[in-house]
Amino acid sequence: MELPVLTLVTIVLCIGILVGGLLAVMLESHVAAIISAGLCSLFASVVYVALAAPDVAMTEASIGSGLSTMIFLYALRKTRSGEDS
Amino acid sequence: MDNFGFTEISILISAVLIFMSILFGIIRLVKGPETVDRVVAVDLLTIVTIALIALLAHLAERFIYLDVALVYGLLSFLGVLAVARYLEKGI
C-alpha cells in the first residue's frame, strides 16, 4: 500500500493534539477545559495506534480519556460545590 | 501502483471523509459558544476516531488494533455520560 495515508493521519492528529492542548490551557470554562484535555489524550491514543503500539493505546484510552475526565469532574464538583462556570 | 483497484479507491475516499469530519469537529470545538457544543463535538470526534482506528487496522493488516476501537467505543460512552451527569448537577 503506497498511499500516503499514514503521514496524513499523523499530521492531522498532531494538529488535533495541539488544538486540544491550547484549548485546555486557554479556555475559561473549567468543564470545557477538562473536555479539551480528554480530547488531547484521545488523539494521542490514535497516534499510538499509528505507531504500532496497541497496548499503550488501550491504556491511554482507558485511563487518560475515560478515568481522568471523570476524576477531574468529581474533583471539580467537590471543590466548587455551588456556582458553575 | 499502476492500477488503483476498488479497495484502494474506497480507502482513499473514506480517509478523506474522516479527515474532513475531524477538521469540522475541531472547528466546532474551537468556535463553540457553550460547553454543550464542545461536549457534542468531542463525542463526534470520538466516533470518527473509532472509524479512523478501524481504517488503520485495515491499512496495517493487524486486526489486534480493533480491540482498541472496542475499548474506545465503551469508554467514550462513559465519558460523555459523566459530563452530562455533571452538567445537570448529579455525579
Write the H/E string of chain B, N to C. HHH
Helical region count of chain A?
3
Query: What is the CA-based Rg of chain B, rounded?
Result: 16 Å
pLDDT under 50 segments of chain B (min length 5)? none
**What structural class do the secondary elements of chain A suggest?**
mainly alpha
Gross morphology of chain A is flat
Question: Unreliable stretches of chain A, pLDDT < 50, 5 or more residues?
Answer: none
Distance between the termini of chain A: 49 Å
Q: How much of the sequence of chain B is in beta strands?
A: under 5%
Helix percent of chain B reads: over 70%
For the termini of chain B, the CA-CA separation is: 54 Å
Secondary structure tally, helices of chain B: 3
Largest inter-chain contact set? A-B, 40 and 41 residues
| Largest sheet properties of chain A | none
Radius of gyration of chain A equals 15 Å
Strand content of chain A: under 5%
The tally of strands of chain B reads: 0
Helix content of chain A: over 70%
**Total of domains of chain B:** 1
Order of helices and strands of chain A: HHH
Give structural notes.
The complex is a heterodimer of chains A (85) and B (91). In chain A, 81% of the residues lie in helices and 0% in strands. With 85 residues, chain A is mostly helical. The model of chain A has no long low-confidence stretch (mean pLDDT 84). Chain A has three helices and no strands. The radius of gyration of chain A is 15 Å and the shape is flat. Chain A has a domain at 28-79. Chain B contains three helices and no strands. Chain B is flat. The longest helix of chain B is centred in the N-terminal third of the chain and has 26 residues, at 6-31. The model of chain B has no long low-confidence stretch (mean pLDDT 85). By secondary structure, chain B is an all-alpha fold. Chain B has one domain (6-87). Chain B starts with 5 loop residues before the first helix and ends with a helix. The A-B interface holds A 1-3, 5-6, 8-9, 12, 15-16, 19, 23, 29, 31-32, 35-36, 38-39, 42-43, 45-46, 49-50, 52, 54, 57-58, 61-62, 65-66, 69-70, 73-74, 76-77, 84 and B 1, 8, 11-12, 15, 19, 22-23, 26, 29-30, 35, 38-39, 42, 45-46, 49, 52-53, 55-56, 59-60, 62, 64-65, 67-68, 71-72, 75-76, 78-79, 82-83, 86-87, 89, 91.
